[in-house]
Amino acid sequence: MPKAKPANIQPKRILVITLRYLGDTLLTTPLLNALHQAYPQAAIDVLLPAANAGMLAGNPAVAQIVEMPVKPKLWTFLRFLAGLYRRYDWAIAAQDGDRPALCAIIAGKRSLGFVPEALGKAWWKKLLFSDALVFPRDYRHPLLENLRFCEVLGVEPCYRLTPPCSDQKPPVEPLKPYAVLHIMPQWRYKQWHSAGWRALIDYLTKSGLQVVLSGSGHPAERQVLNEIVADAAAVPIDVSGRLSLAQLADLIGGAALFVGPDTGITHMAAATGTPTIALFGPTDPRKWAPWPVGYENAQAPFAARGSRRVGNVYLIQGHTDKECLPCQLEGCERHRNSHSECLDDLPVQTVIRAVDEFISQAKSSRENPVAYYS
Q1: What tens digit of pLDDT does each residue of 314-323 get?
Q2: Res 9 pLDDT > 80
Q3: 16, β-bridge pairs
Q4: How far apart are CA 72 and CA 57, in angstroms?
Q5: Angle at Cα 282 formed by Cα 163 and Cα 339, nearest 5°?
């Protein structure tokens, strides 16, 4: 007997589940915006790890944050699930893992989620979801994959990301114009070389921009930053570990330029509308590039290979003459603390050319304003 689907009622409570990284949380915001536009009276809650909650600070589409227990034991997790039981009209798992699926199935009168293309042990998800979407091996950009739920629900898609915002001013107010550099990614294999960052800092300073450094403030990270700026022409302002995500987003939003690696903060920078230079190595830009403001298309903004500018995002792929790019692996040694030759070989002049393009446009726009899209 085929599984009966709940009636397509006007939902009063919706739960969206995203349990991975900061960037994944941000990439759910177009889906949240689409749901909020379609059902402005519905309360939309988001289930996520507590460490990611800051990415949704000040988001007008979100009614409440539901925090997933950190590494819960089985009994704790079962008790957590029991507390979710049928609390929501719709529950949407925005990832294809087991925990997001369980939470959606338990929490929603109507549950939606992804199932892998090769079902294997995941057969139970297809059986229990009210609506199961196949998550293909060659998946598209996660923003686009998430928006597939809109078609199932009869909701108009929205391509706009919403960065966090704060009503508290950052404790540092740099002289304008300024550029924000996010030098250290979470993992080594996404890291550009120190010599490149050092030369870029000097170039930005000579170009009349105050340099601001963002980061986690972790001691190992701070040591690297100190080594990079030791001989800098001018000492940058270091806000590492001093700002909330919302304060950092506000700071970046006022910057003339942002430069960063393949990390959630770079996605957030792009979402603020600030001219953003993203340095990519092994990761496939077609799947994981920052989403430009104003780009509304069901096709990914960037191809798998090559450097390109779209709107306020200039994506630079490290040494595109390497046939292995993008390998989608964790560096040349296949682990997160590995180096990546494509980024080790990325020359600073390539990045400077992108900087010059944004700076020259900013100068010309003061006399004759132009849109980023042409």
Answers
A1: 999 987 677 8
A2: no
A3: 46, 92
A4: 25
A5: 105
Q: What is the DSSP letter of 54?
A: G
User: Position 174: which residue type?
Assistant: P
Is the Cβ–Cβ distance between 191 and 343 less than 8 Å? yes
Is pLDDT larger for residue 199 or for residue 168?
199
DSSP 221: H
Q: List Cβ neighbours of 24 (8 Å cut-off, separation of 6 or more).
A: 18, 94, 95, 142, 264
Maximal C-alpha separation, the chain? 73
Distance of CA 193 to the CA centre of its chain: 22
**Which residues have CB under 8 Å from 181's CB, separation 6+?**
197, 200, 201, 211, 212, 213, 214, 236, 258, 259, 260
Residues 6+ away with beta carbon under 8 Å from 337: 187, 188, 189, 331
- Per-residue pLDDT at 109: 97
CA distance 243 to 253: 14
How many residues are there in the chain?
A: 374
Which residue, 133, 78, 136, is CA-closest to 106?
A: 78
Asked whether residue 291 carries a pLDDT value surpassing 60, the answer given is yes
What average pLDDT does range 208-225 have in this prediction?
90
Secondary structure (DSSP) of 262-330: SSHHHHHHHHHT--EEEEESSS-HHHHPPPPTT---SS-SS-SSS-EEETTEEEEES-TT-TT-S--SS
Q: What is each CA distance from 163 to 23, 174, 195, in whole angstroms?
A: 11, 21, 31
Mapping DSSP to helix (H, G, I), strand (E, B) and coil, where does residue 372 land? Answer: coil
Strand order across the 313-317 sheet: 237-238, 210-214, 178-182, 257-261, 276-280, 313-317, 308-310
Q: Binning pLDDT at 50, 70 and 90, where does residue 365 land? A: low
One-letter amino acid for residue 213 of the chain = L
Q: Which domains does the chain show, CATH number per domain?
A: 13-153 (3.40.50.2000), 178-367 (3.40.50.2000)
CA 248 to the chain's CA centroid: 14
CA distance 186 to 177: 28
- Phi/psi at 364 (5° precision): -70, -30
For residue 149, give both structure tokens: 């739920």
